[in-house]
Amino acid sequence: MAVDVVTEVVIERPVLEVAAYVGDPANAPEWYANIESVQWRTEPPVAVGSRMDFVAQFLGRRLAYTYEVVELVPFERLVMRTAQGPFPMETSYEWSSAGGKATRMMLRNRGEPSGFAGVAAPLMSAAMRRANQKDLARLKSVLESR
């Protein structure tokens, strides 16, 4: 069974500011509660082909995985896929104007877990949705307090 979780938030900051902050993986530990660290494998800044190693905690497990940027439309869309890790996952961000100086940000996680993770996909989806909602609330707070 596939995992496909979409979460959105409106942040009272301009698109360029939100996209620049979120589009820099080095900022991920500041607003993602479960991400412990990010290490670049390639030289910054983010570009198609960039690779980063992430370490996270999810559902009580330590996860280490490598993301590769597969699509980048500056200040509009960023898509990363796991190049290695516990199961294939794609994370995408989209940013658009929400009127005035506000930004609508969409976070999407999708993948095809196998083995036990495949059986637990509905549980994983629910946990991922809750985590993403909390992370986007944290992101909103971080950016709006600037």
Features of this protein?
single chain; 146 residues; alpha+beta; seven-stranded antiparallel beta sheet; 7 strands; 28% helix; globular
| Largest beta sheet: strand ordering | 1-7-6-5-4-3-2
DSSP helix count? 4
What's the mean pLDDT score? 91
- Order of helices and strands, N to C? EHHEEEEEEHH
Give start-end ranges of low-pLDDT stretches: none
- How many beta-strand runs? 7
The radius of gyration is: 15 Å
Structural class: alpha+beta
Instruction: Quote the beta fraction.
Output: 35-45%
Q: How would you summarize the topology of this molecule?
A:
Layout: E1 3-11, H1 15-22, H2 28-31, E2 35-40, E3 51-58, E4 61-73, E5 77-84, E6 89-97, E7 103-111, H3 115-119, H4 121-144
Antiparallel strand pairs: 1-7, 2-3, 3-4, 4-5, 5-6, 6-7
Kindly describe this structure:
- The protein has 146 residues and is of the alpha+beta class.
- Helix content is 28%, strand content 42%.
- It has four helices and seven strands; from the N terminus they run E-H-H-E-E-E-E-E-E-H-H.
- A seven-stranded antiparallel sheet has the order 1-7-6-5-4-3-2.
- A hairpin with a 5-residue loop joins strand 6 and strand 7 (103-111).
- The model has no long low-confidence stretch (mean pLDDT 91).
